[in-house]
Amino acid sequence: MYLTRFLWIFLCSTKFVLGEIDFNRDIRPILSDKCFSCHGPDEHGRKADLRLDIESEAKSDDLMAIIAGNPDESEMIYRIHSDDEDELMPPPEIGKPLTKKEKQILEQWIKEGAVWADHWAYVPPVDHPTPEIKDMQWQTHWIDPFALSDIEKRNFRPAKEADPVTLVRRLHFDLTGLPPAPEVVQSFASDPSDKSYSRLIEDLLDSPHFGERLATYWLDLVRYADTVGYHGDQPHNISPYRDWVIQAFNNNMPFDQFTREQLAGDLLPGSTTQQKVASGYNRLLQTTHEGGLQLKEYDAIYAADRVRNVSEVWMGATVGCAQCHDHKYDPYTIKDHYALASFFADLGDRGFNGNSLPTKRPPEIQIFTPEQQAKIDQLTEEIAQALPQEIIPQWNALENNHTEFSSQLRKARNNRKDRWKKKLAELEPKYLELTDQATIDRYRALVGKKKKVENQGIWTMVSRAVKPRTMRVLPRGNWMDESGPVVLPSVPEFLGSIQTDNKLLTRLDLANWLTDTEKGIGLFNARVLANRIWYLLFGRGLAPDLTDFGGQGTPPNHPELLDRLALSLVKKNWDLKAFIGDILLSKTYRQSTLPPAGEFSFQVARRLPAEFVRDNTLAISGLLVPTIGGPSVKPLQPAGYYRHLNFPQRTYEADKGEALGRRGLYVHWQRQFLHPMLKAFDAPSREECSAERPQSNTPLAALVLLNDPTFLEAAKFFAKKITSEGGSSVEERLSYAFQHAVSRPPDTFEQKTLAALLEIKEPTTETDWTPVARAVLNLAETNLRR
Amino acid sequence: MNPSLLANAINRRAFLAGSGLCLGSAALNSLFARDVAKPNFLLPKAKAKRVIFLCMAGGPSHLETFDYKPKLDELHGQPMPESFTKGQPIAQLQGKELKVQGHLTKFKKYGQGEQYVSDYLPWTAKMADDISIVRSMVTEQINHDPAHTFMNTGTAISGRPSMGAWVNYGLGSEAEDLPGFVVMTSVGGRNPQPIASRQWSAGFLPSKFQGVEFNSTGDPVHYVRNPKGVSASHQKKLVDAITALDRHRNQAINDPETDTRIAAYEMAFKMQSSVPDLMDTSGEPQHILDMYGAVPGDGSYASNCLLARKLAEKGVRFIHLYHRGWDHHGGLEKYMGQCCQLTDKPTWALIQDLKQRGMLDDTLVVWGGEFGRTPMYQGKGEIGRDHHIKGFSMWMAGGGTKRGFGYGETDELGYHAIKDKVHVHDMHATMLHLLGIKHEFFTVKHQGLDWKLTGVDHSHVIKDLIA
């Protein structure tokens, strides 16, 4: 592994040895990091009227900053070498000196003709020809030659295929986030042919847990959480959105449609309930319910939040940086920022709605399970039949009065109540004029029944367009400054425009533009998505920076492969299952994470994400409840953890029974106080978009696996399983425990070490075996995806 | 700064994409600390080694603590002159009549430095010559949650590291079996405002730099106690077995993270005894307990101050105490009385205790809220004051700051800081400077930008505050 890393760094840092300078790979990162903040896109910060982000200006005859082919005459080269502190570039006070190597590269580049290229992420992906490779075995899958050619160029060999047990575990964790059942491991290990490998992939892509696995990642990106985030951090109604995401992945909804429904599900013609649920995406941002908030301040905060998220999620861009000024490194202007924000100006998401639990954030709609819906439909039908048709108009008139008076009665103060009670009583004889008491009673019973079912529905926030508020550019991001120009919805100028026919653009236009590969930036965004999926399957992106494809992001290490993947995604019409399934068939995916010296692997071993650490333990122990979807659940949690919450104060009540065995992605996501287990294993608070989780390794995480009651409970349950199903001898049982946790039998050392935990000679009970169960569940290997 | 030196600490991504200088470092890194040769953000010498930040959460009134304005009493009850308030952000008083509210207490001058301190703070008054009072603080956020976030991270946008995480990232920790950034809270006063764990988040820094909350009731750290029925010796046996098995298997799978993990398990086991021991103050001599007014295990601010001293002795780099109860929109007199009664003496005791142990010289203590309170009247219940961000007071003590010193001024009604304004970023810059960090070079790359605790605009070290 050390060697792999060494090699990886070597591959990334020795690019210059290869000779040819590539502008995007070698030059732009230097210019961007060291020069653009004063000589870049931001008009206000610009010095000496010099731009180095635009070729014609950088090479203009006026300033002679860069004279192609002639470093000695180029002002830039003179300045970067100057001994005079006043002349030296970058100025020493900025604290970003050029390294010797960077100076050499700039010089060499100018000498070679200062060849310029557009930024790699702003040009469409190219259908690069398959590179020549030596190892013919690597020619069967189209991805492999691209991966191999770089390795071969450096005289390395590709890492071999991982062993079947590792592969079957890898596929399960990558596609479902759950460990394989021992039978599945055994069956694949006994026939690890290409055919059974493909069948395994098909099965896993069809698994209902596939949607859960991808949703776990998507929810990080869109910052899905169960609470509002600011101040009192009250719960809000949104879990049906999470379930929609899971189902969308399970149903393999094409990514362009997936995009449309989230950004603009409410605007689609004939919008279905589920599409409205999807439009809950626009409501996922953090909101405040703090008294004394200034509405206009939060209008600005929410607008900026949405711009940050939509640009990071779909474009891999940091348009959020243009909130106060033109972007320092990328061609986004401050106007672009507010014009993008304008798309969301039709969402009347404003201000303070009190401190109820859950808080009320209209518009919300109610969602019913199919069973509930069937019951409602049936009751509606029965109610319609309950009265003679001819009396219905008069009946409805009475009902309207009844509703009105009842509502008045509820609102009335003490001494006024009598008035409304009297009015209601006066209505009764009028009903009897229409029909007999039995019919009335029957009708009312049905209505009561229907209401009862309706009350069981879950609420969820949705988008609903209102008259858009006026959106202005806020100079320096200051919401109190109203001097900026009014802007209408439009896309960042340098990326083109959307045909409007003089109509106001909507969120739907934006969604279409984001994925339209001809008139929009779908081809660019395909790269962003392809790179993230690659990261999920390999452990690192082909472009290492998953959220910044701009000038400050690190350019891709394998740009040709990334281009081809993006095109493949588009050619497959954004079919994610097909796209993923295809990658899994490559040899590159199947590489071992343990290459010996001289070999290189694209695969990186990594600890399971927080939710899967939980799921894995529950699955191994047999406690997992694999139900899909539903309201969020509350596992056991240390007492008093919510004591800093207020408005209102809260005590956490853990769920009981089955809810305690639900998967991690259903755990109540309290933004301010995320469950300590999830937090210890690096799950993000979801206040902002996160495309890549850190992988920490702390004592706090160790304490969770050792002492969290959920994990202890699982260990006890596992111990019970070991004693009841694991055979009779100590050896058989140890083997059973190991097979379930790490899919292999223990070796002699492992047997001996575990057996030493059994305190008595003839261990029989669950209690005797609990230390062994705890040890096995705590192992690094148990929680590792290799 | 030299990115190759930092790459090591940032994260795996930077590690892999950055440079070749950090090979194998993951396993060698201390679990809470970080070892870096000598990055270029370090000054040749540091005056302070650690920080104890006493956050009076809710926003104490500067007009009832340190900022005496005779004119305020003179205009009491009259409409607030519009020249002060026009175009200014306002919280709960939006659209309300704005009236001047005179001081609700008396002020006297104390110490050789002749610093004004109010009658609410008799113990602080006694130590007027130990502290430097800043009366010209300004912040940018007028609501509690974002104002705390701003005070702690230098921005109101979530997801950035808090100052304790920054400081640990920059300097590492000297504590062997404790986190380098510890947070403790207490409650008492009016309507305790919520406080989010975001306030001690590591943001985009590695999570080992995040603040760890030590609880005064229940488990001092989550899951630090053995499960019921498991003795320390059983737990030890288990941890030994886990680490032995991991070590054994790692000979075959060779994952460097596993080495770190083994160390994490060993440290976790040590913490299982070191943390409860530390949190137990019953072994302190009675006169020390009395000095603070602490009763072991009561979860009070007094106990937290005593624990802060113990943590400081153990080498914890950043100790952050929150006392929730200072949001005095109404009943200000009553609640100031409560809050000061709970915090004034323990704060004094902490300073004296550090002093008598020779630790005040290298411990920077900072006292203050997320903002101050309006010179205008608010009447939620009895007389109170609304949130105020254009001028308020904080103080610093020890760690190389001046003693018995006053800095900055607000206008005649205590509204705007008019002389020697100290922005939150300037406070951060000064704190970092005392810790031996050049704030303008103390950056971390995230999403392509070089982030600083002290923000984008030019921030200043307040040299006048430094002894």
What does this protein structure show overall?
The complex is a heterodimer of chains A (about 775) and B (about 475). Chain A is mainly α and about 775 residues long. Chain A has 32 helices and eight strands. Helix content of chain A is about 45%, strand content about 5%. In chain A, helix 17 runs antiparallel to helix 20. Chain A starts with a helix and ends with a strand. Residues about 1-20 of chain A have low confidence and may be disordered. With about 475 residues, chain B is α/β, with parallel strands linked by helices. Chain B has helices spanning about 5-10, 10-15, 25-30, 70-75, 80-85, 120-125, 145-155, 165-170, 230-255, 255-280, 285-290, 300-315, 330-355, 425-435; strands at about 50-55, 105-110, 115-120, 130-140, 180-190, 210-215, 320-325, 365-370, 370-375, 385-390, 390-395, 405, 410, 415-420, 420-425, 445, 450. In chain B, strands 1, 4, 5, 6, 7, 8, 11, 12 and 15 form a nine-stranded mixed beta sheet that branches. In chain B, strand 13 and strand 14 (about 415-420) form a beta hairpin. Mean pLDDT of chain B is about 90; it is low at about 1-30 and about 35.
Which architecture of the largest domain in chain B per CATH? Answer: 3-Layer(aba) Sandwich
> How many strands in all of chain A?
8
Q: Give the mean pLDDT of chain B.
A: 89
What amount of the residues of chain A lies in strands? Answer: under 5%
| Distance between the first and last residues' Cα of chain B | 28 Å
* Helix content, binned percent of chain A: 40-55%
Task: Please give the number of β-strands of chain B.
Answer: 17
Number of domains of chain B: 3
Write the layout of secondary structure elements.
The complex is a heterodimer of chains A (786) and B (467).
Chain A: H1 2-13, H2 23-34, H3 36-39, H4 55-58, H5 75-81, H6 100-111, H7 143-153, E1 157-158, H8 164-176, H9 182-190, H10 194-206, H11 208-221, H12 239-250, H13 255-264, H14 273-278, H15 295-315, H16 334-342, E2 364-367, H17 370-385, H18 392-411, H19 417-434, H20 437-454, E3 458-461, E4 471-472, E5 486-487, H21 507-515, H22 522-538, H23 559-571, H24 576-585, H25 587-590, E6 599-600, E7 606-607, H26 610-621, H27 676-680, H28 699-707, H29 709-725, H30 730-742, H31 748-755, H32 766-778, E8 784-785
Parallel strand pairs in A: 1-6
Antiparallel strand pairs in A: 2-3, 4-5, 7-8
Helix pairs in contact in A: 2-6, 8-9, 8-10, 8-11, 10-24, 11-12, 13-21, 15-16, 17-20, 18-19, 22-23, 26-29, 28-29, 29-30, 29-32, 30-32
Chain B: H1 3-10, H2 12-17, H3 25-28, E1 50-57, H4 70-74, H5 82-85, E2 107-110, E3 115-118, H6 122-126, E4 131-138, H7 144-153, H8 163-171, E5 181-190, E6 212-213, H9 232-253, H10 256-279, H11 286-292, H12 301-313, E7 318-326, H13 332-356, E8 363-368, E9 372-373, E10 387-388, E11 392-397, E12 405-407, E13 409-410, E14 417-419, E15 422-423, H14 424-434, E16 443-446, E17 449-452
Parallel strand pairs in B: 1-7, 1-8, 4-12, 4-15, 5-6, 5-7
Antiparallel strand pairs in B: 2-3, 4-11, 8-11, 9-10, 13-14, 16-17
Helix pairs in contact in B: 9-10, 12-13
